[in-house]
Design a protein that fits this description.
The protein has 338 residues and is of the alpha/beta class. The chain has 17 helices and eight strands. It binds adenine (ADE) and zinc ion.
């Protein structure tokens, strides 16, 4: 391990844009299939599910993998594996999307189908807190192209569970922006905010700057991807003025073909413009990356110095939904890291 890699690992980091289902490796699918099938899936059969050539193909692959998580035990194993990997990378806090919309749709909205899954996720979370010193918050993600009614179900479940489970921190909207923007979710976002949930939104990943403006207009507190903000100087100024954090995902954007190369990714431009940018891995099992690797890539491809990497780690805490006292404590640890 080089000196810079060692420094990156030791930096206390928060990962803020990570889909639980996107962390499930083909080898885990094989293991899960052995529990559920007479004939377990072969590794190459599992690997074939992860192949895609464009963004639509990626979304289909993501859905296919998600639908193979069959019961609470599967979710608990997936969550625990994810948390072990996070801790190994020096991640101390993660805010993790769960595609609750897919869970409901796949189980035909059977009343009470989500609660045992959520209990399993909470077991993994508590174990990670106790054994790994890792804190995890959940963000319930509604797949935006599944209709507003589906999203209502997901967000209201988040509001309901939040009362007894403060780990349910917020809601998000992933899915296909080309099929719907954010405006139809305005009322649901207001309702979620009133229930004390924090609001994140994928915007400007596959669509133009207007989608990001729309996401900001409905109250999104953080923007995922924001790739197309680079096309609009005034939007960059607005994001800067609002101090809206951006959850950037370089490898994701390159692998889904939305960005031609790392060099063309706007990370450096956004950082130099004074935006509050954070590095994230999105779906590490699909994109063969992880958050530690994203820091390495920032160093290698965008010349981020150790001091700038330290600043990106600070940003990950600033942009998190942690209480202020926790943010301050982590930031002082980041400041004093040798
Ligand atoms: N679901 C999982 N990853 C996603 C992404 N990058 N964009 C939209 N929806 C997603
Ligand atoms: Zn995402």
């Amino acid at each position: 391990m080089t000196a810079i890699e060692d420094f990156i690992r030791r930096l206390p980091k928060a990962e803020l844009h990570l889909h639980l289902e996107g962390t499930v490796l083909p080898s885990t699918l094989v293991e899960l299939s052995a529990r559920h099938r007479g004939r377990p899936m072969a590794l190459d059969e599992a690997e074939a599910l992860y192949r895609f050539t464009d963004f639509t193909g990626f979304l289909n692959a993501f859905k296919a993998v998600t639908e193979l998580l069959a019961d609470p035990g599967d979710y608990e194993l997936a969550a625990w594996r994810m948390m072990e990997r996070l801790a190994e990378q020096g991640v101390v806090h993660a805010e993790v999307f769960v595609s609750v919309g897919v869970i409901y749709l796949w189980r035909k909205h059977k009343e009470g189908c989500f609660e045992p899954i959520f209990a399993a996720l909470e077991r993994a979370r508590q174990r990670a807190e106790d054994e790994l010193g890792l804190s995890v918050y959940w963000i319930f993600d509604a797949v935006r192209h599944f209709t507003v009614e589906e999203a209502a179900r997901v967000f209201r479940k988040a509001a309901e569970l939040k009362a007894a489970h403060p780990s349910v921190i917020g809601i998000g909207l992933g899915g296909d922006e080309r099929r719907t923007g954010s405006e139809p979710f305005r009322t649901l976002f207001a309702e979620a905010r009133a229930a004390g949930l924090r609001l994140t939104n994928h915007a400007g990943e596959t669509t133009g700057p207007e989608a990001i403006r729309e996401a900001l207009r409905i109250g999104s507190e953080r923007i995922g991807h924001a790739l197309s903000a680079q096309r609009d100087f005034y939007l960059i100024e607005e994001i800067k003025e609002r101090r809206t954090p951006l959850e950037l995902n370089m490898t994701s954007n390159v692998r889904t073909g939305l960005c031609r190369s790392y060099a063309e990714h706007p990370l450096r431009r956004y950082y130099d413009a004074g935006l509050l940018v954070t590095l994230n891995s999105d779906d590490p099992a699909f994109f063969a990356s992880d958050v530690e690797n994203e820091y390495r890539l920032a160093h290698r491809n965008h010349g981020f110095t150790p001091e700038e990497l330290r600043d990106l780690a600070r940003n990950s805490m600033r942009a998190s939904f942690l209480p202020e006292a926790k943010k301050t404590a982590w930031i002082s640890q980041i400041d004093s890291l040798q």
